[in-house]
Structure formats: structure tokens, C-alpha cells
Amino acid sequence: MISPAVWWWNKKRGCVCAPWNVSPDKPRYVSLESPSPTMMDFDLKERVRSAVDIVDVIGSSLSLQPKGRLYVTQCPWHNDQSPSLQVNRERQSWKCWPCDIGGDVFSFVMRRDGVDFFTALKMLAEQAGIEIQAGKQVEAGSAQDKSTLLSAVQLVCDAYFQQLDSPKTDDAKIARDYLAARGVDDENRKRFQIGFAPDSWDFVINLLKQNKFRPEIAHAAGVAFHRKDGSSYDMFRGRLMFPIHDIQGRAISMGGRVIPEIAKRHGENAGGKYINGPETLLFRKSNVLYGMQLAREPIRKGGQALVMEGYTDVVAARQAGIEPVVAVLGTALGAAHVDILKRLTQRVVLVLDGDAAGQKRADEVLELFVQADADLRVLTLPDGSDPADYLQQHGREAFEQLVADAPDCLSHKLAKLTEGVDIATDTHAVMHAIDTMVGVIASAPKMDPVKQDQLLLRLSRTFGTTTEKLEQRVVARRAEIAKQSAARAKFRLQAARSKEQSGHKPKPQTRESADGSFDPNLMLAESADMDGFDFAPSGFAYDDEPTSHVAEVLQQSLSGIDRELFETLIESPDLAAIAVEAIDPDWLSSNTAKMLLSAYQDLDLQGRDLTSQSLLLLLENEFLKNEVTTLLFRIEQRGDKISLTAEERYLAVVARYRLRESEAETSRQIAKLATTVMDEDEELALLKQLFDSEKARQQIN
Q1: What's the longest Cα–Cα distance across the chain?
Q2: Region (Disordered): which ranges (predicted)?
Q3: Is 90 exceeded by the pLDDT of residue 155?
Q4: Which of 84, 91, 331, 410 is the Cys-Cys partner for 285 at CB 3.0 to 4.6 Å?
Q5: Coil, strand, or helix at residue 543?
Q6: Is 511 in a helix, a strand, or coil?
Q7: What are the two backbone dihedrals, phi and then psi, of residue 109, each rounded to the nearest 5 degrees?
Q8: Rounded Cα distance, 454 and 62, in Å
């Protein structure tokens, strides 16, 4: 998206872009192509929001009770003893004060279902009967047509399931017997749609051909490989097949597990124990957790998620009656996975095999959860067993006891660092452990002070040092990390601008390169699951790195004079039209305030109403939506308790901003006098300037 600053400059020159349009001749079909590649089409969002009622959407999963002008219900995201979640039908918004979360209908679906904005939009559009086409319209039936790919994957999954459900070949019977020997019953075989891929090079190729799919679809759907001569062959052969579903329950890929008796015939060419489908337009491993379509509701209701290492572990756990279980798919647990899980629960238990590789994986994800301020527990199974084996041997009760006793990730890390270390004599090992733990704590720039105090007290007792010294190290390390992150952000931003000035296409922006001049949705971009959308939205380079300190700093709640400003703008949209010209972004104290002002500028430049509803529609980030909703509910609760009008309060706020800027300029000039060598005339001129400024400020005649 063009930055608000550039848009503003274009407007001043009279080069205002036309508002976004929806084709009038296709009333139930909307393309997402627009001048802004980083923001969903505003008109589409408005159509979807207008077609659904937030009371109906929230009421479909929670029991709402009318209370005056509001509806209330018990919040599902904390142990709510009385109805804390409020829904305002008039404003189409919701808020839970104890959790400090809220927003519009989109953010509710995002949090309820653990999805990003794009998926929430599509889910609500489908509910409203509005068809969405992402980006440029693609040819139906082509390899770029995602509905065609979905149909192809589902067809293959169904065929594999039938092979195992009604085994007619010797290999299919071997597969059925092997699955039964692994302890999987018919109920769970059907629940997870487990199938069998015949030991054939062209089973899928012929299946898709018979069903009139184009030859290139097999490869595009991730179920076949290309040969050099242009022909294709089946990806999965002689394996148990596990369909992989998105959050909406649609098959988007599949994984295959080797069957030992069949694999013997192929010797070294049998392939790995597990093979997951390749990344396609439908499937990105780093954004999908196996079994989430079944586990989402149990996770939300039970308050915890168990993350395992393979789909057979998930099937075994589910069969044992343990429901809130998911698994990663051939990749490490990444930042996108953490985002998905955190939308559903704060407590995550990482269930690991008791081998060295399992311990390494625990270390890899530790900082991700610390940065996300999520409660990560690490369960290392005894005797190197995996979840399926342990459940089969010891049963559900013993496994659940291990889950309940699982230490938090920091305790787990500390135990591993000090294992076999003599605290009294091994100074080098102790310092290494302290530095490591300090680094982990410092990686969370916004850790709750009470939680940090508890952690430092634990380290103090372990290593026999004071909490004050440990806190000093944390502060120093945190400052160092922030400085490094800011330097990287500045470098990337300068590099992008340099390329742009030289005529080269700038490098896509990352989370670390965002600043106040960019699209607010981009700056706090969600990790989209790419359901129906391009892998990397233009302007944002997807990666699996933890959210940077720069992104964390962006998420600062409005406070003080900034909050007063936006309360007046929300209360009186006419003032917002004035503020986009009158307010200098440098006056604002937080990046959150700058992003909201930027959003108002975007709305103004597009010719939109500057209402809170328009603002919520433009914003796609949960945090920013919550900030706006909090202001809305504050205004609603305050009623007529303030005697001053919104305009009077706005003028007072602007006066305070200008006074603060004047005082800052005076301080800069005084510092200049004290540190700069000047001749007598220059000093007198500067002193006169200071005097005149102070005289004007105090309105002395």
C-alpha cells in the first residue's frame, strides 16, 4: 500500500486516487484486487459486515442475554463467574474488560476460531452467501484455481479412504491390518478419514484424468511429481494416508506413513517414515496444525492445547479420549503456530519424545512462547517413548497426570542448564546458565512485572545471587536486543528506500522494518493461513521468525493525551476530518496512536466516512480493533458525565500538544546554548527568540 505520507502528498498535488469499487454487474461476486495489496477491499469488508449481525454470530456459539442496550455472556477466554463479555448490536462490537479484548465481528471470529483476518472474512462471507475471488480472476479449472485444487485433493482423499474402508487388494488388507495393530479402531479411522495409497505410479494420475481434471492439477494439488519429460507420477505409494484439513475442515493436503511390510519390497527406495505433501496454493506447513479442525473447540473449552510431533500421536490421543491435541507437520513449531494457538488458549503443552531431538525442539520454541507471553509447558515422555506407545502401555489417566505435572518451559530450561552442574564451584557453567536465562527473559519486551519478579526470584534462589543484579542484567540485555532490532529495522528500511530511489523494486517489508509511515495493517500484520490468498501479500515478506521487538513496541495501548484525542475523534467524526490535517504525527506518544491517525488519513483520502465503523472495517489487526472498541465502550459507559463537548475537549488536547512541543523546542534551544560555541550576536538572537517564545506561550503583552 502507498504510505499515508505519500497519499497525503499526492492529495495536496491534486492526484487523489479513486475510491475502491466493486463491480456492479456481479452483486454476489467480489474480487479482492484493489490499489492496496496489503489491505482487503474496503467495500467487500463493508458488504460482509452489513450482511451479518454480530449478535447472531456470537450467539451461535455463546448464550447471549439482553441487558439494557447490550447483550452479555460469560467470556470463554477466562474463568468468568459472571457475564463479562458485552455485545453492542448498535455498534456491532464486543468487549471483555477482564481480558482486555474486543473488536468487531471479524475479530470475534478470529479469536473464537483461531484464524487470521483473511480467513475470518472468508468464513463470514460464505455464511452471508457472498463469493470471494482473491486477486486477479483466474481461469476456472486451472492450476491457479483454488476451488479446483480443493476438489482434486478431496477426490484423492476420498479414493484413498475407500481403498482402506473396503479393502479389495492384498496390499489394502495389509494396510488395514497394520492400522489395527497400531491400535486405531474403526471409529477413529473414519473420524480422521485415514486411507491407503495403492503401491502404484499412476493411481492418482488416472483418477484425476477420469474425473476430467487437467494434467497439471495433480502436481499443483500436491499429489503427484513431474518427470523431466513432462509426465507425472503419484507422490504417495503404498502408504497409510492422513488427510490434512484447514480450520474449516476442508482437505488441503495429506501425509503418508510407511507400511513396513510393503516398504520391504522397495528396500532403500522406500522413502522416509513420514512424507507430507509439498507446499501448494492451499497448504503451507508453517501455518497449519494437524487435527486443529477437531481440536479447536476442545482447546477453547478446556483451556489448554497439547502439541505432538506426528499425526499418529494425535489419532492415538483422540482414541484415548484426549481431545485438545494437534501436531506439527514436518516442520518446527513456528511463530505462526504460536499465533494460532494463542488465539485459542494461553496454556500449551509441548509433548516430546524423550530423545535428544525432542530436547532440542523444546529449546527452539522456548523464546517464541516467552515473547508471546504464553504459558508453555514441556512434557518429556519417559524411556524415550512416543505418545502413541505411552498411551497404549499406560493409558489415559497416567498420561493426563504427566500433562498436569509438566513443568513450565523456563523451569524445564533451567533444569537442563543446571543438570550435573555444581553451583558452588562450576563458575563458568553457572555464568552460562545465568546469561542464557537472562537472554530468554529479556526476549519478552513486555513481560508482566509480577511474572518477571517471580522468575528472577527463582533464578536468585538457584544461583545464590540477588534479584537486583539479575534485573540489571535483564534490563541491559533487553536494551541491547531493542537496539539491535531497531538497527536492523533502520537498515532494511534504508535499503528498501535506496532501491526504490534507484529504480529497483524495493525488498518486501518485514515485521522489523515497519514504521509509522506504513499501512497500519501491514505493520501489525497477522500471519495469514493463506486460505484463498497469495502466499506472501505484496509488501510483506513472510517468515517464521519470532515477532521482533519493533513489532512488540508497536502494540502499546493508548494512554494519556493520545487516548483523549482519539476519544474525541470517535465521538465526533467531523473532528477527525480536521485532525488528519491539524495533528502532526510527531506529537503522538505511541506507534499505536500514529497508526490510528494513519488509518484516519487513509479513510479520508479514499473519501470514506470517518466513523468508528469505517475505522474498524479498515483495520485488520486484533490489537488495533480492540483499542478502538475500548474507546467506544468507554464513551458509552461515560455517557453525559463530562460537561465539555467533544470539540472543546479536542481543542484543549491540541493546545496541550502544541504546548508540549513548544516546551520541547525551548529545552532544545537551551541545550544548544549550553553546548554550542557562538559569538555574542548569535547568543543574543537565540536568547531573544527564547524570550519571545516564552512570552507568547504565557500570553504576556
Answers
A1: 103
A2: 492-520
A3: yes
A4: 331
A5: coil
A6: helix
A7: -65, -40
A8: 36
pLDDT digits (tens, 9 = 90+) for 483-515: 777 777 666 666 656 655 555 443 333 323 333
Instruction: Calculate the alpha carbon distances from 648 to 575, 584, 653 in Å.
Output: 11, 19, 9
In whole angstroms, what is the distance from residue 609 CA to residue 175 CA?
Answer: 62
Q: Rounded to 5 degrees, what are φ and ψ at 144?
A: -95, -5
Contact 550, 518 (CB under 8 A): no
Classify burial at 125, counting beta carbons within 10 Å of its beta carbon; exposed 0-12, middle 13-18, buried 19 or more. Answer: buried
Cell of 419: 543438570
Alpha helices in 464-586 (DSSP H): 467-501, 520-523, 549-554, 560-571, 573-582
Contacts of 419 (CB under 8 A, 6+ apart): none
- DSSP codes joined into one string, 95-150: EETTTTEEESHHHHHHHHHT--HHHHHHHHHHHHT-EEE-SS---TTSTT-HHHHH
Number of Cβ atoms within 10 Å of the Cβ of 242: 27
- Residue whose C-alpha cell is 525442539: 361
The architecture of the domain spanning 146-280 is: Alpha-Beta Complex (3.90)
Question: What number of other Cβ atoms are within 10 A of residue 468's Cβ?
Answer: 9
Domain 292-418 has CATH 3.40.50.11270: no
- Torsion-angle region of 546 (φ positive above 0: left; ψ -120 to 50: alpha; else: beta): beta
Query: Residues for the chain: how many in total?
Result: 701
What's the whole-model pTM score?
0.63
CA distances to 59, 66, 204, 359 from 339, rounded to whole Å, are: 25, 33, 35, 22
Give yes or no for a contact between 309 and 352, defined as CB atoms under 8 angstroms apart.
yes
* Ordered strands of the 251-258 beta sheet: 195-197, 239-245, 251-258, 274-276
Residues of the chain with CATH 3.90.580.10: 29-133
276 backbone φψ class: left, alpha, beta (φ>0; ψ -120 to 50): beta
The CATH number of the structural domain formed by 29-133 is 3.90.580.10
